[in-house]
Amino acid sequence: MKKLFLVAMLLCFCVSVSSAEVYISARQAAMGGTGVAGANGLDAVAYNPAGLLKGPDNEFRLSYGFATKNFDQIYNSFSSANDPGSYMVDNYDTNLDANGNISGILGADIRHVGISLLTPSIKSVLSKPAGTLVGSFNNIGTSAIVLTLGRSFLLPVVNIASLDIGVNLKSFHAAQGTITIASDPTITSSSSATATYWTGSGFGVDLGARTNITIPALADFSVGVALKNLAQTITYNPKTRVDTFTLVGGSPVISKGSEVVGTSTTTSSPVITSIGCAGTIPITGIKLAADIESIGGGSGALAVPSETVTHLGLEWPIMMKSLLLRAGFASGSNTSLLSFGAQLNLPFMGLEITNVIDQKNSENTSWVLDASIGI
User: Fold this and answer.
1) How far apart are CA 314 and CA 287, in angstroms?
2) Exposed (0-12), middle (13-18) or buried (19+): which is 250, by Cβ within 10 Å?
3) Comparing C-alpha atoms, which of 131, 127, 242, 260 is closest to residue 190?
4) Which pTM was predicted?
5) Are 152 and 164 in contact (CB under 8 A)?
């Protein structure tokens, strides 16, 4: 019966993947993006799959993160990734001004077998004043179905230490659309611009390991390592189309040109190597975590600048652990994030909220909201 339930859930997730990084999980976002050694259960899917084994036996989680500025523009632009010219025309009277992300996860963990849908993670850069077509549209979105498996081994240290090994098997889909319009049409002349867009799919693997030392009623300490996006590629056929814009009754109208399909292209995701540690200070219950993350490689539309990012986080339980307060930061050559959050623990349920402040891109300051049920 449980196997049938898992298969049915996976099929439902496959149907849902048709539509939307910020950090995954409010807890890890609030703790500065740490998670290699400190994330447990479904929180750990995006950080270290080995952490799934330290969560509840059965867990359901929904997490959603979104940029606070012009969230609606970012969200709506994803459905127009393959037709950016029409999006610009439809928003002719709108001031497009967005440079942020949306991301989330919907998952279930049944006896430490995790099935998660990474809901479309959208990165959108939109720029256009109201009353003109002159501006740019750049949107890329990815979604994935993730199967997380793991195994725990008890180490011969008086039964207080364990080694967890985990793997994420990821099947994902991606789409991108871009257009830059340099001039407006007039009564006597039209304008044109080239739209570039594609959709593709691929497969990837994450591997993780974590050692855990737990002394009941006293303290715990963990060390973890994770290798993410191993052999992760997307194959797609880029498409271009020259769109023509004319002025009709004072409003622009689009005429779509013939679609030109380019050569099949394969791009690779950057490999991310992370190491981290986390532990609890005795008596106080305060949890501290630190990660070092190295990002490198990647090609084409998936390429990102190489950098090393340091993550630090803190979690402070109060009111007999019914309320958890969190704070953290992440720092690198291209990254500067501050975060603050809280979790309210109810019987069998947790509600969490986090604010992430992007000091390098104020338009990407975001909120992350979580709801979870653990048994």
Assistant:
1) 6
2) exposed
3) 242
4) 0.86
5) yes
The alpha carbon of 274 is separated from its chain's Cα centroid by a whole number of angstroms, namely: 16
At residue 218, the pLDDT reads 64
- Phi then psi for 71, rounded to 5 degrees? -55, -40
Compute the distance between CA of residue 45 and CA of residue 169 in angstroms, rounded to an integer: 11
Tokens of 160: 């207080």
Which residues are within 8 A (CB) of 270 and not within 5 positions of it... i.e. 6 or more apart?
A: 229, 295, 296, 297, 298, 302, 303, 304, 306
**CA 33, CA 25: separation in Å to the nearest integer?**
9
Signed CA dihedral, 22, 27, 28, 30: sign only? positive
Given phi > 0 = left and psi -120 to 50 = alpha, else beta, which region is 36? alpha
Q: Domain spans of the chain?
A: 2-272
DSSP 40: -
pLDDT reported for residue 217:
62
In a 10 Å sphere around its CB, with 0-12 CB exposed, 13-18 middle and 19+ buried, how is residue 221 labelled? Answer: middle
Q: Do residues 208 and 35 lie in contact, with contact meaning Cβ atoms separated by under 8 Å?
A: no
Q: Which residues, listed in sequence order, are joined to residue 267 by a DSSP beta bridge?
A: 234
The list of the chain residues with pLDDT below 50 reads 1-21
Residue 112's pLDDT is what? 87
Count other Cβ atoms within 10 Å, centred on residue 137: 26
Residues 6+ apart with CB under 8 A from 250: none
pLDDT value of position 157:
61
In whole angstroms, what separates CA 156 from the centre of its chain? 37
